[in-house]
Amino acid sequence: MSADVTTARLAAPSTTFSPLPLLRRAINANRSLLTSVGSLGFGFLLWEIAADLIVRDKLFLVAPSAVVVRIAQLLGTGELQHHIVASGLEFVIGFVIAAFVGVGVGLLMGTCKPARIALTPWVAAIYSTPLIALSPLLILWFGIGITSKVVVVFAVSVFPVLVNTQTGIEGADERLLEMARAFGANTRQTFTKVLLPAAVPFIVAGLRLGVGRGLVGVVAAELFGAREGLGFLITAASQVFDMGALFGAVVILALAGVLSTAAIRALEQRIAPWRGA
Amino acid sequence: MAIAQLIPGSAAAPMTTPKVEASHLTKWFTNPQAGHDIEVLRDVSVSVAPGEFLSIVGPSGCGKTTLLRIFAGLIPVSSGAVLYDGAPVSGPSSKMGFVFQSDNLLPWRRIHDNVAFGPELRGERRDSMEPRIQSLLRLVGLSGFERYYPHQLSGGMRQRVNLARALAIQPDVLLMDEPFAALDAQTREIMQDELLRIWQETGNTVIFITHQIDEAIFLADRIMVLGARPGRIREVIPVDLPRPRSLEMKRHPEFTRLADHVWSSIEQEVRESIRGEQEVVASAHQRALAHLDED
Fold first, then answer.
1. Is the pLDDT at A14 greater than 50, yes or no?
2. What pLDDT, on the 0 to 100 scale, is given for residue A188?
3. Does pLDDT of A203 surpass 50?
């Protein structure tokens, strides 16, 4: 906008104060990116100041610079990679199963009335239960290893996927369904060519919710009992007052959330390119 | 151009089997809340000759769209019969193309694939449908837009895709449900012109619903006027205007006379229907106010 003003008023330069229109345009083009990066940077600066100058107690609040140093140390010994791989594996296995089961059961509930009637009370009851609270029980059942974590990730992330998929199927435009019928679509064609594509944006939204819950789930499950993983790292670090490592693990988790959300957005762009209205 | 198209449909009594025929068609819907049936269409009988262009006009609530859905085989009749080429209609037919009021394009399909929807459902092979789809896109003036998504097109363009999609199944009959209602006046006139051109090129039978009297006259060989609640035929008016028709004809004295005729035929119905709707709105309004008072 202001770039246009600049070019329009070249005859009266006194009204503008833009000696570098090119730089201005570059800033305008990347304004949202610059804003978010700037916001993060400002937050870290405040954190740094608070830790170094105000609190001045590494047990209470460790500075971001110290966290970065500690992350580098842990990467150097290979310890951090080990925990990332352990948690990542638990998360990916649990989430992929949840995605397939959630989409599958959601499609079934969206298209088959008896299935919907039979399963709705179960879904409603379990969806609103804080399943993470059952982690100790699941560890008792499935052991301290990877299985119990996979089960927790699955349990917390399957429901958003399932509920969204069902909503997407049920929310398909009646007029499009009638159109398909007028053109002679059979049940299978109506499903593959109308219902399923109509549900894709909802399914993707469900996956995005599931990712967030799954990441929380994997760490929470590890807090309750594990021998490896980022949750274990957090527990171990807090027991020896290693605040740098504790915050480091949290930073890695935040990063994982950002990356997986971006990955799902990219997936949406690929499979639902018509959404860019 | 076929001679039959030069002669207005009703002037020459159809000697052949009608393309579409309704005899004593009656339709009622069960209303579970009221506990009784609502009669939507009563004793509608009409024959549409092959290649004929029939317009249906009537006030809102006269069952126009229901009648068209019955012709399309989307809903069954309650009594009476609908015949296509002399045989009863029992479900959607591959010989009838439906053009919807809202374009109903699939938003995730590109323009080309929306037009290909009907042939694709029938399992037609790509290479056999491709030349037809290309020529249809040319016919509706959308060559070069194959790879666009519907949301990237204007309303008028989307309606043309809607029409091309119906034509892609090579129908004998085009059923059109107020297809130009949502368009602005200029686009609508252009689309009317285009539709007549396409109709003359394909030789289809067309049944065209509209609430615009001038649109009905401009397009049709005959106009069927429906009355409301329940919908029944008030009058069938032949349109003795020469073809091909041009937009200037809308200022022709005969055109004006026909418009007066059609209008006088439905005026009372329209007024009653408006009053009915006003009452519905007013009572809904009152209920809403009552709710507010309770809160």
1. no
2. 93
3. yes
Q: Which residues of B touch A181 (CB under 8 A)?
A: 74, 92
What is the rounded distance in angstroms from the CA atom of residue A164 to the CA atom of residue B245?
53
The structure's pTM equals 0.77
CA distance A205 to A103: 12
Single-letter amino acid, residue A232: F
CB distance A189–B104 less than 8 Å? no
How far is the C-alpha of A219 from the C-alpha of A226, rounded, in Å?
10
Question: Strands, DSSP E only, in B7-107?
Answer: 20-31, 36-48, 53-57, 79-84, 87-88, 96-99
CB B44 within 8 A of CB B255: no
Residues 6+ away with beta carbon under 8 Å from A164? A106, A202, A203, A205, A206, A209
Chain A (144-203) residues lying within 8 Å, Cβ to Cβ, of chain B: 175-176, 178-185, 189, 193-194, 197-198, 200
d(CA B247, CA B262): 19
Size of interface A-B (CB pairs under 8 A): 49
Collapse the DSSP code of B100 into the 3-class scheme (helix H, G, I; strand E, B; otherwise coil) and give the result. Answer: coil
Gap between the Cα atoms of B46 and B57, Å rounded: 14
Minimal Cβ distance to A274: which of B72, B107, B118: B107
Rounded Cα distance, B207 and B186, in Å = 23
**C-alpha span between A251 and A236 (Å, rounded):** 16
- pLDDT tens sequence across B57-110: 988 778 888 999 999 989 998 988 898 988 888 888 888 899 998 889 999 999
pLDDT of res. A59: 80
